[in-house]
């Protein structure tokens, strides 16, 4: 995609064409509304010992799980929660 500055430098564009081009590029039409993330439902970024992180990733890889899946399993086991039951409640 050509940069806006390059397009505006072209001498064959008159002032109206330049203004229309700028307005078209900075238009809010077609943009999505910004929604803040609800941090009450996610874990924040955490700093963990690098050996723990390495072992965690290895375990997830060995089980062919995403790290999120492994963390859900670990937390569900720790807090005695049935994940399948929770998923059915969400539906």
- Element string (H = helix, E = strand): HHHHH
Query: Cα-atom Rg, whole angstroms?
Result: 25 Å
N-C termini distance: 43 Å
Mean pLDDT: 83
How many helices does DSSP assign?
5
Q: What fraction strand?
A: under 5%
Biggest β-sheet: count, sense, barrel?
Answer: none
Low-confidence stretches: none
What is the share of helical residues? 55-70%
Structural class, by secondary structure, is mainly alpha
Number of domains: 1
Number of beta strands:
0
What is the overall silhouette? Answer: elongated
Keywords: Plasmid
Features:
mainly alpha
Structure report:
Keywords: Plasmid. By secondary structure, the protein is mainly α. The protein has helices at 4-9, 15-26, 50-62, 67-78, 83-90.
Please give a quick description of this structure.
By secondary structure, this protein is mainly alpha-helical. Helices cover 56% and strands 0% of the residues.
Question: What does the secondary structure layout of this molecule look like, with pairings?
Answer:
Layout: H1 4-9, H2 15-26, H3 50-62, H4 67-78, H5 83-90
Keywords: Plasmid
């Amino acid at each position: 995609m050509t940069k806006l500055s390059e397009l505006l430098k072209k001498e064959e564009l008159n002032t109206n064409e330049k203004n229309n081009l700028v307005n078209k590029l900075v238009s809010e039409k077609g943009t999505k509304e910004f929604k803040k993330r609800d941090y009450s439902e996610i874990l924040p970024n955490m700093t963990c010992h690098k050996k723990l992180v390495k072992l965690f990733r290895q375990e997830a890889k060995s089980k062919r799980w995403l790290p999120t899946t492994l963390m859900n399993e670990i937390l569900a086991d720790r807090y005695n929660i049935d994940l399948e039951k929770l998923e059915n409640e969400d539906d």
